[in-house]
């Protein structure tokens, strides 16, 4: 199932170098085309284009776009207009139509008085018989923790068809919180300095992230699909609130949620659909879920159940069999649940080889390792880390999942989704982010194979190596695998991303495991897992 390939360093085109690169002087400029270009929401004959243009006067600015078959723009195939205006933070998102399926295009914007953006490259989705399609998946990019080397590595490789960002594209915390001032890397500033709560705050945070040249370069070269998780809003968000939202000091939850969603849709090449599906020829259907704000019920309160307990074992069992198992609780809401089932069934009946579900949080069964001990925390752990570890250890002994914010906290909803996949006869693959670590799960439901899950490591946010400093990562991984039947492999100490290659006969997942994010380097190792068509488990 898993193999380790030689270490490699991609050299060409790294860190924004190359023929299409943005001039360094353009990054962070307050007027004109401020943050490069991007594309997203690809279809067979259309693609959404993005740029940001701030006029000198502050008034709305008319823009024109061109899409060409060649980088010299000698063969223009689509033209159109857009407006950059203050109501959308001067972001413009026109859709180019009339394109040919499955081919690369080049695009650019022209502003007032002939000002011109850098050129971008994009690709439409293919139709018909497809032999291969490659997707890069990212998650959890906390800018002050380190360099976006994962973005640089992916931008340099030139063998991708699509980028999917699974959430936590930005983080909401104030400077000095996560990471602390001591742990923050110099030269990685974020704005504003405070926690982001209002629309202007969210806009400023996106602007400070999108100043990064490696992120700009990735957007410039590949079309993307983008999914918000919690940190685009605030930590552990659900439809009615969040762990990191205090109404008494931060105001109305609905207002904050609305502001966060608006800024996300302004700054990313993203449609206004909360969830959607995309067809890649006869090869696969990609289903993009929303598991945060549309229908998610509140996370079950394990810590509260333990704090109120007079008999710990009885309290854990009551929690497991009561709030945790409640069949009414949902991650997506009834409407989206029904829609997902329809998408899976339609895809199988349409003879698509694979059904790929892209979403935010891990679905695989995961509890704290059975042999975990307090010395895994290392010296002087924080009280929060110690409390979470102790709670997780007690929960594991009662068969309660490690993270109630993931699908493990919603077992009935997970079972419904996996039953839909099984009933449809889907070759079900799901990809997830959120956890900061890399995972490979064989998913089961009712004792039968249901599909596989590949969880991506983070771009920069720290994994278990950050909090469990007293145990070697290889030892931790072995303990987790031995304690969790669905888990086949994990890496708990490297940042990076996943590249998934779909062919009619198999899906291959390559985890790119970076050496470092504390300096600019793309040296990495590659771990690989495969699943054969029809197997519904890794082989």
UniProtKB/TrEMBL annotation:
PROSITE patterns, per database record: TAT
Entries under InterPro entries matching the protein: Metallo-depent_PP-like, PhoD-like_MPP, PhoD-like_sf, PhoD_N, Phospholipid_Metab_Enz, TAT_signal
Pfam families, sorted: PhoD, PhoD_N
Residues of the Phospholipase D N-terminal domain: 35-124
UniProt key word Signal: yes
Domain PhoD-like phosphatase metallophosphatase as annotated: residue spans: 136-511
Regions annotated as coiled coil: none
UniProt signal peptide: 1-21
Classification via CDD domains: MPP_PhoD (cd07389)
Name assigned to this protein: Alkaline phosphatase D family protein
Organism: Sphingoaurantiacus capsulatus
């Amino acid at each position: 199932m898993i193999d380790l390939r030689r270490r490699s360093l991609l050299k060409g085109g790294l860190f924004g170098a190359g023929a299409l690169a943005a001039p360094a002087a353009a990054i962070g400029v307050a007027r004109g085309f401020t943050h490069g270009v991007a594309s997203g929401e690809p279809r067979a004959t259309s693609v959404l284009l993005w740029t940001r243009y701030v006029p000198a006067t502050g008034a709305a600015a008319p823009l024109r776009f061109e899409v060409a078959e060649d980088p010299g723009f000698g063969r223009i195939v689509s033209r159109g207009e857009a407006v950059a205006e203050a109501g959308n933070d001067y972001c413009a998102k026109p859709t180019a139509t009339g394109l040919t399926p499955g081919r690369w295009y080049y695009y650019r914007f022209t502003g007032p008085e002939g000002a011109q953006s850098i050129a971008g490259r994009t690709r439409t989705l293919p139709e018909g018989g497809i032999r291969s399609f490659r997707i890069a998946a990212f998650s959890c990019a906390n800018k002050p923790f380190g360099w976006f080397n994962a973005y640089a590595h992916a931008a340099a490789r030139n063998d991708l068809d699509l980028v999917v960002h699974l959430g936590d594209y930005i983080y909401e915390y104030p400077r000095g919180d996560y990471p602390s001032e001591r742990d923050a890397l110099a030269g990685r500033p974020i704005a504003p300095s405070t926690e982001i709560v209002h629309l202007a705050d969210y806009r400023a945070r996106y602007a400070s992230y999108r100043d990064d040249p490696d992120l700009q370069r990735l957007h410039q070269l590949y079309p993307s699909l983008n999914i918000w998780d919690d940190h685009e809003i605030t930590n552990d968000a659900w439809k009615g609130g969040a762990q990191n939202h205090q109404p008494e000091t931060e105001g109305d939850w609905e207002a904050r949620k609305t502001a966060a969603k608006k800024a996300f849709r302004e700054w990313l090449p993203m449609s206004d659909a909360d969830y959607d599906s995309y067809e890649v020829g006869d090869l696969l259907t990609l289903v993009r879920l929303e598991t945060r704000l549309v229908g998610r019920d509140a996370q079950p309160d394990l810590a509260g159940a333990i704090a109120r307990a007079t008999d710990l074992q009885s309290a854990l069992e009551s929690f497991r069999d009561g709030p945790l198992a409640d069949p009414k609780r949902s991650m997506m809401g009834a409407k989206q649940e029904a829609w997902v089932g329809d998408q899976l069934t339609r895809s199988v009946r349409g003879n698509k080889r694979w059904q790929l579900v892209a979403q935010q949080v891990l679905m695989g069964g995961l509890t704290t390792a059975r042999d975990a001990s307090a010395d895994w925390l290392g010296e002087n752990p924080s009280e929060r880390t110690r409390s979470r570890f102790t709670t997780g250890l007690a929960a594991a002994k009662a068969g309660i999942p490690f993270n109630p914010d993931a699908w493990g906290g919603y077992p009935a909803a997970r079972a419904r989704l996996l039953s839909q996949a099984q009933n449809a006869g889907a070759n079900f693959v799901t990809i997830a982010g959120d956890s900061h670590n890399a995972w490979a799960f064989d998913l089961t439901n009712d004792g039968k194979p249901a599909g596989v899950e590949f969880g991506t490591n983070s771009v920069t946010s720290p994994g278990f190596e950050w909090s469990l400093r007293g145990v070697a990562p290889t030892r931790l991984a072995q303990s987790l695998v031995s304690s969790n039947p669905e888990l086949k492999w994990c890496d708990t100490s490297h940042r990076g991303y996943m590249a998934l290659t779909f062919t009619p006969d198999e899906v291959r997942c390559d985890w790119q495991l970076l050496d470092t994010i504390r300096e600019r380097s793309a040296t990495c190792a590659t771990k690989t897992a495969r699943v054969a068509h029809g197997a519904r488990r890794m082989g």
